[in-house]
Amino acid sequence: MGRRARAKADLDLDLADLPPELRWREWMGRVEAVIFASPGPVSREVLARVVGRDCNLDRVIEDIRDELRGRPYELVSVAGGWQHRTRKSFGVVIRTALGGGADKSLSQAENLILACIAYYQPITRSELSQFFGKEVSRDTIGRLRGLEFIAAGPRNPQPGAPYTYVTTKAFLSHFGFDTLRDLPDIEMLEDAGLLSKEKMLSGDIPITTAELVEEDDRPD
After folding, report:
1. Which one, of 194, 198, 199, 197, lies nearest residue 184 by Cα?
2. Angle, CA of 139, 100 and 84, to the nearest 5°
3. How far apart (Å, rounded) are the C-alpha atoms in residues 151 and 140?
4. 20 C-beta neighbours (distance < 10 Å), count
5. Section 1-10 average pLDDT
6. Angle at 201 between CA 196 and CA 207, to 5 degrees
7. Do residues 99 and 60 lie in contact, with contact meaning Cβ atoms separated by under 8 Å?
8. Is-above-0.70 flag for pTM?
9. pLDDT tens, 31-50?
């Protein structure tokens, strides 16, 4: 514990002895290094640990993105943080060289159930079954949980207090959303007649909603 505390204390965050330009470059390097080394999206709170109080992280991210223009990878906002990802235009190249990675493809039924959870969470399995007019199996829920796209949410205050289901950060990351606010606005879709129970049951999903179930082009 003492060793970790000393290591943190030894890191000069403000870099007051450096000229402004070099200070900025050092902060950029630190931020990019942390993001590069992380297996998942890195939050603002984590990045703030390696830069000074006067560092504008949004500007740092913008400058890093500018330097990555023309490179085969980019810095994206996803799941409440930032992550390096290969540009989608190189997806075929990567799959050809490295294979497809873990299979996270979903059936049409799984796609529809996941979209329903995303929009109506927290929602129980019984409510999902009522929505689709037939039972949603435990196996289907188990597969979506196994892929870490959904997780157990708060218990529903109905008799028996069944678990509800909610989407996860892994869901946001896989489908390229920063937060759930990035989902197409459901009220607008409903008002426009583009999203309804009948359309979801028939599989007639608008392209904006269908994007929820497209596979990410980067390997897992």
Report:
1. 194
2. 100
3. 13
4. 8
5. 52
6. 65
7. no
8. no
9. 999 999 998 999 999 999 99
